[in-house]
Amino acid sequence: MLVRRSAAIAFSQGHFKFKFSKDPNYHVWQVWIGGPGRPSVLDNVPMTTRGAFKNHSDSEIPFPDKSLLKAFSRFTNAIRWYHISVEIALQQQKPPPVSTALTPSFCHRLSEYGAVLFSAFCRLMPSPLRAQIYRGLWFLGARLYGPSCSFNVQRLPFGMYLKTKRQEHQSLASEYGALQYLRRLTHIPVPRPLDLVCGSDISYMLTTRLPGHPVGLCLDSMSDAGVDAFNNELKQYLSELRALPKPVGIKHAICNAVGGPLYDYRMIAGQDYDKDRGDHIQPFATEEDFNNKLQTPALPGVCHKSGHQIVLTHADINMRNILYHNGRISGIIDKENAGWFPDYWEYTKALYVTKVNRRWLSMMDRVFATFGDFREDYVTERKLWDYCYSGKF
């Protein structure tokens, strides 16, 4: 059995495991344990590959003994954790950085300046022409970088990202306004909003690209000290976010970042779809109105209490939306759910998407303990979630 040298090295490090079915068939699975520094060969193969041992000659050479592959596959998880422990030990031997400030690299600054100049030039053109340019850049980016993890977000050349929305234009407008607000008043690392084009059918939001990998890819290789540093940094950024005053022009108590209708995955899941309304939910004058909207007649005793502080909320803090680079948070992205919500909403939404990764759940418990005791709110939310995904259907 012949394999490339890079694949053989990855296999020896526990990145692949074999699962055998009926002879001579087998499946090869990638083992997703470890940080972003995975061998590049893994990027060129699917998560699972089906194969079969075949003899393409007349030499009657016997097939490889699969018992050794079976035995090795039983230890792949342990092998991966061993390599991670070595990686963490090497990280701990490095001297700590002299400065704790997050300083962008020269290349990142240069690409951002280029993106700003490009967008300034594009904004001189009429909206329909800009939409055509961005549509072309989308296809160019897909060809150069491949699709991203989200079907409506695409990496572009020149250090940019493009986000699109069909029909639901208000969520992009809210995200664009939130990015402007945060860049003006906080030190939170968010993308620079470059342009927003709203068409009759599809809208485009152009932003700069931030360095780093989603923190979910880095959790396995983070030491306990690294986790503590991450938690403290996230607390700092969330404190800045929650301390921001509501702009004078916003009249509703609970609304999106710029005062308009809410676009929130948790609320969408709890409501029957209305074609005329779409996925947006009208803002609320009071927290009581918001609580009544969350409540369901099937669970009459399950309802949130009023009296919470209303704060600016990202509303989609998860392992995919926080970027991590060189031991620091390098970006907090995807703010289309952002808005003014009760103070517990950030915590419960952080647990809404990720319910099974124990390390992440423990990290969120420690981060949000700084802002209050939201356990009762979480219990209420969890009952409503369970109804949305089981009893409702």
TrEMBL record:
Signal peptide: none annotated. CDD domains: APH_ChoK_like (cd05120). InterPro entries: AGP_Transferase (IPR051678), Aminoglycoside_PTrfase (IPR002575), Kinase-like_dom_sf (IPR011009). Pfam families: APH. Residues 162-351 form the Aminoglycoside phosphotransferase domain. This is Aminoglycoside phosphotransferase domain-containing protein. It comes from Fusarium pseudograminearum (strain CS3096). The lineage of its organism: Eukaryota, Fungi, Dikarya, Ascomycota, Pezizomycotina.
